[in-house]
């Protein structure tokens, strides 16, 4: 940072503290300094014809940096900064106009020079630039273009992973009357949404809410009221609670507040697999492969490929590789009927998997298994190191691998799961964070 800009920000900070105007000065000055970096790069691009505006911006910044910073002139100074900002916005518009012209004229040389300038781009322009660059990158690869491709790929993959996790969530489910719940209970195969129900049962002074969980796993439930007229509840609303597998219980009672008036309410609920109250034990997990195997970590925690903000690990292994339980627990969910896998949006639903509930109520998830590659039955209790499946290439995947994670329900939002950073143990040695490219010999 040049001395004049350091001086500018220092004076602005001093002035803003003295006058009580911290944000209008220091933040705007800092923002303009960062923008000036891009303007300097643009000055060196002979393909950009709007040199007059670049000079105007430079003069505006110089004028701001040498102004007399007196308390009684703070408004004038702010106006000067705003003027610089207006000139920058004009330059940004002309830049976007030039980029579009270079694409329309198929002038890849000019496009390449302009792409290297880091100036704000609208979402629609980014998409157009990305498509144009992808079609022409064989002419010349550009660092910023490659970064745009990588960012777009990360965003797409992260969205697919999130959608896969979010698919475990069911919402806007109607609260039933007692008779409706009874009929549903008698059904031989309720739908996924119907595997958790809440029904009302009339009592002497109001209604009891009865929750039932027909799943083989614990769920976290959110009960909300859209309307409440003349009612009083025995618990704080909205209500959050958990239900054990194959269980039912009374979760709420509402009564009439003023007996001289009628009561009325409208409610609905949502549920998600897992426990929000789970607290992960301080345990180390086994590497889920047989002894003697040499395993490569193809993606680690917060991986750039598809684990952005995820505590999950991908082990690159061939189809049919035996998978062993990294930690003991109860098998609460399995899927092994699919035989499709592709690195394409919408393929997440085709993943084969096993989910094991641990003693601390966290869930161990093993994904992308081989068709008919599950070796254990739903409801079975497995021990650490027990054979549970064979790896495959099903679901949203770029190649054969095992995706492993440990998760619980996110207690902050209650509508999605969150992954937990865990450590591994191999022949007595702790491996806290396996990284991409690591080779692990299972001992």
Question: What CATH architecture of the largest domain do you see?
Answer: Distorted Sandwich
CATH topology of the largest domain: Glucose Permease (Domain IIA)
CATH-assigned homologous superfamily of the largest domain: Glucose Permease (Domain IIA)
The proportion of residues in beta strands is 25-35%
Write down the overall mean pLDDT.
Answer: 83
Main beta sheet: strand number and arrangement? 9 strands, antiparallel
The shape, in one word, is extended
CATH domain class name of the largest domain: Mainly Beta
Instruction: Calculate Rg over CA atoms.
Output: 30 Å
Descriptive report:
The chain contains eight helices and 26 strands. The strands form six sheets. Strands 11, 12, 14, 16, 17, 19, 22, 23 and 26 form a nine-stranded antiparallel beta sheet that branches. With about 450 residues, it is α+β, with helices and mostly antiparallel strands. α2 (about 20-45) packs parallel to α4 (about 75-105) and α3 (about 50-65) runs antiparallel to α4 (about 75-105). The protein has three domains: about 5-110; about 175-275, Immunoglobulin-like (Sandwich); about 285-440, Glucose Permease (Domain IIA) (Distorted Sandwich). A hairpin with a 2-residue loop joins β24 and β25 (about 430).
């Amino acid at each position: 940072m040049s001395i004049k800009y350091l001086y500018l920000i220092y004076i602005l900070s001093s002035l803003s503290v003295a006058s009580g105007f911290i944000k209008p000065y220091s933040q705007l000055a800092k923002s303009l300094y960062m923008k000036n970096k891009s303007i300097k790069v643009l000055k060196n691009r002979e393909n950009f014809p709007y040199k007059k505006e670049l000079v105007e911006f430079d003069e505006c910044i110089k004028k701001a940096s040498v102004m007399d910073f007196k308390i009684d002139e703070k408004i004038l100074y702010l106006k000067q900064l705003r003027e610089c900002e207006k000139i920058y916005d004009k330059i940004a518009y002309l830049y976007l106009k030039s980029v579009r012209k270079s694409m329309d004229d198929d002038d890849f040389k000019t496009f390449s020079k302009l792409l290297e300038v880091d100036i704000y781009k609208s979402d629609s322009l980014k998409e157009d630039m990305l498509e144009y660059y992808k079609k022409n990158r064989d002419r010349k690869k550009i660092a910023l273009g490659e970064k745009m491709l990588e960012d777009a790929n990360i965003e797409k993959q992260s969205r697919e992973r999130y959608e896969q996790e979010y698919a475990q969530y069911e919402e806007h489910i109607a609260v039933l009357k007692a008779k409706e719940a009874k009929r549903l209970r008698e059904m031989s195969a309720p739908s996924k949404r119907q595997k958790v129900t809440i029904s009302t049962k009339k009592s002497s002074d109001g209604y009891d809410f009865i929750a039932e969980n027909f799943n083989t796993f614990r769920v976290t439930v959110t009960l909300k009221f859209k309307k409440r007229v003349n009612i009083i509840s025995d618990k704080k609303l909205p209500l959050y609670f958990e239900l054990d597998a194959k269980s039912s219980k009374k979760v709420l009672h509402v009564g009439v507040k003023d007996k001289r008036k009628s009561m009325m309410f409208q409610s609905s609920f949502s549920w998600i697999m897992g426990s929000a109250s789970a607290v992960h034990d301080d345990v180390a997990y086994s590497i889920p492969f047989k002894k003697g195997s040499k395993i490569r970590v193809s993606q680690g925690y917060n991986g750039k490929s598809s684990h952005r903000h995820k505590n999950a690990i991908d082990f690159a292994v061939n189809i049919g590789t035996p998978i062993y339980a990294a930690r003991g627990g109860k098998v609460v969910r399995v899927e092994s009927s699919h035989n499709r896998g592709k690195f394409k949006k919408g393929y997440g639903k085709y993943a084969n998997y096993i989910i094991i509930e641990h003693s601390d109520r966290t869930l161990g998830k093993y994904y992308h298994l081989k068709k008919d590659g599950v070796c254990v039955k739903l409801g079975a209790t497995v021990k650490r190191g027990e054979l549970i499946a064979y790896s495959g290439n099903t679901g949203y995947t770029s190649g054969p691998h095992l995706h492993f994670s440990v998760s619980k329900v996110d207690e902050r939002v209650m509508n999605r799961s969150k992954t937990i950073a865990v450590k591994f143990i191999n022949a007595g040695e702790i491996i806290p964070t396996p990284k991409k490219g690591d080779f692990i010999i299972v001992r």
